[in-house]
Design brief:
The protein is about 55% helix and about 10% strand. The chain has about 220 residues and is of the alpha/beta class.
């Protein structure tokens, strides 16, 4: 069964191109297009898709505020940002508002569809440049904050189950979902559930953030 995808994009040509790609997909199906945040907030509550591709440079209510409001009314909705904005402030604002992924508009079509599959499997799609900016931003935390986080390591360790800590360690070693599933003789679906819980408990939104946070609080070496 194909996952339904709606688009929130004020440029009609961009929306049309995305729709054409979705129409040709074997995994996804286009549902609706909204040209503004206001339209999206009203329409998505009625015709609820599985995923939303969201620009953040919208007229009126901007994309970040739209994401924030959608997250309140549709907490399980998967939202992936597709935008030209690559500054750290925009990235972190969108993620803090509740975006599940962040891609740049120069992402080629094949990679875009691959990243949608990543989100379909429970991951957090990120353009390489975006992931690097997040890593650099998180790595720039001052020494005092890092030391404070390390003191909280025991609390995080107690918060995560032993299996979740094992999964986090395998994530840091570069294992794929299927690799982790094979290592523990569990299903990929169970791996996704473990990773979702790890992200929630550590308050992170991506593999790179989980690894950095895990190292900061002493759950991982290095």
């Amino acid at each position: 069964m194909k996952n339904l995808v709606s688009i929130v994009e004020d440029h009609e040509q961009t929306a049309l191109e995305l729709r054409q790609v979705l129409d040709q997909s074997t995994d996804f199906r286009f549902l609706k297009w909204y040209g503004s945040g206001e339209q999206a907030i009203k329409g998505l509550a009625i015709d609820i898709p599985d995923f939303v591709i969201m620009d953040i440079g919208l007229p009126g209510i901007d994309g970040v505020e739209t994401i924030r409001r959608l997250r309140r009314q549709l907490p399980d909705l998967k939202i992936i940002v597709l935008t030209v904005f690559e500054d750290a402030a925009s990235i972190l604002s969108a993620i803090e508002a509740g975006a599940n992924g962040y891609l740049l508009k120069d992402t080629n079509i094949a990679l875009l569809m691959a990243e949608l599959k990543v989100m379909q499997l429970g991951g957090a799609p990120m353009s390489p440049a975006i992931a690097l900016k997040i890593i650099n931003r998180l790595s720039s935390v001052n020494k005092d904050e890092t030391e404070t986080a390390e003191k909280k390591g025991t609390a995080f360790e107690q918060m995560l189950t032993s299996r979740e800590r094992e999964v986090l360690n395998h994530i840091s070693l570069g294992y794929t979902y299927s690799g982790i599933a094979d290592a523990f003789s569990i299903s990929p679906h169970t791996v996704r559930r473990h990773i979702e819980k790890i992200y929630q408990k550590l308050n992170v939104h991506s593999r790179s953030e989980a690894i950095i946070k895990g190292k900061q609080v002493g759950l991982l070496d290095g």
